[in-house]
From TrEMBL:
Protein name (Swiss-Prot/TrEMBL): Transcriptional regulator, AraC family
Domain HTH araC/xylS-type: 158-259
SUPFAM superfamilies documented for this protein: Homeodomain-like, RmlC-like cupins
Coiled-coil portions: none
Species lineage: Bacteria, Pseudomonadati, Thermodesulfobacteriota, Desulfovibrionia, Desulfovibrionales
UniProt xrefs under InterPro entries: AraC-bd, Homeodomain-like_sf, HTH_AraC, HTH_AraC-typ_CS, RmlC-like_jellyroll, RmlC_Cupin_sf
CDD domains given in the database record: cupin_NimR-like_N (cd06124)
Length: 275
């Protein structure tokens, strides 16, 4: 029986000092779990197919269509990809571009996606005066202009919040109340409510809805049906799930993915709705 290699072992971006290098990984050939690690270079994660969630800076990030998760150099992170996932990674040398100093989700234009895909076919040590070097410069110049989006869930280093996050990520259909969870982590309901707001900035109800949205985006991007995702998240009806999704992102799941594929320059409004 063959054992899939970890994606971490497939490529070490720190072996080159080039401003930007890219690598494509198909998770049919690698384990779905990418263990916690860090490297000198910053990393942009783009999903060509399937979906991936990343954990970094005490937050869970989802990589939706036409977006990328940016992880600065030196930040420990891990990831979990769906079995059908194919990703492009862009690794950026520190100081090569004025990119955010904290993790975030960046909208990514079709041009950036195409250039990263082209760079992924180049060797890591391309000559400084080569066509690949010019492509790297263009993609970095374009990347710093891309707007940020909000596809993340704060999870905190607090062991009780982390335990709840792990449990709900494994069983997102769990409908336990704040009081139920307080008993499970041996706290009073009031104390857990205060801890949740202090550690995540969200009430328990808002935080759990954001977690469900992250899971929903991941599963829908991997090809799961709306019906199956609604059931997995514990919704009593598909309509109830669609209503939650539309309230959060401004469109139904079908509209959301259709629009993002056909209108890649569309960005969320300040309230999170899709323009």
């Amino acid at each position: 029986m063959s054992v899939s290699l970890s994606a971490v072992s497939a490529f070490d971006p720190d072996l080159t000092d080039r401003p930007a290098v890219a690598r494509q990984l198909d998770f049919a050939d690698h384990g779905a779990e990418v263990p916690r690690h860090a490297h000198r270079k910053g990393q942009l994660i783009l999903a060509l197919r399937g979906a991936v969630t990343c954990t970094a800076d005490n937050e869970i990030w989802i990589v939706p269509p036409n977006c990328g998760v940016w992880i600065p150099g030196g930040v420990p992170h891990s990831a979990r990809a769906t079995e059908n996932a194919r990703l492009n990674y862009l690794f950026v040398e520190p100081g090569a571009a004025t990119l955010p100093e904290e993790c975030c989700t960046l909208s990514v234009s079709p041009m950036i996606q195409e250039i990263v895909d082209r760079l992924a076919r180049e060797g890591a040590d391309y000559p400084p005066d080569s066509h690949a070097a010019r492509l790297a410069r263009v993609v970095l110049d374009e990347l710093v202009e891309m707007p940020r989006e909000r596809f993340n869930l704060p999870i905190s280093n607090d062991p009780k919040i982390r335990a709840i996050a792990d449990a709900l990520a494994a069983k997102p259909f769990d409908r336990g109340t704040l009081g139920d969870w307080a008993k499970r982590v041996a706290m009073s309901e009031r104390s857990l409510a205060r801890l949740m707001i202090r550690e995540t900035g969200l009430t328990f109800g808002r935080w759990r809805q954001q977690l469900r949205l992250v899971v929903a985006l991941r599963e829908l991007a991997s090809g799961a049906s709306v019906q199956n995702v609604a059931a997995e998240l514990g919704y009593e009806s598909v309509n109830a799930f669609i209503t939650m999704f539309k309230n959060a992102l401004g469109s139904t799941p079908a509209q959301y993915f259709s629009q993002r594929r056909s209108m890649p320059h569309m960005f969320p409004k300040e309230d999170g709705a899709i323009e």
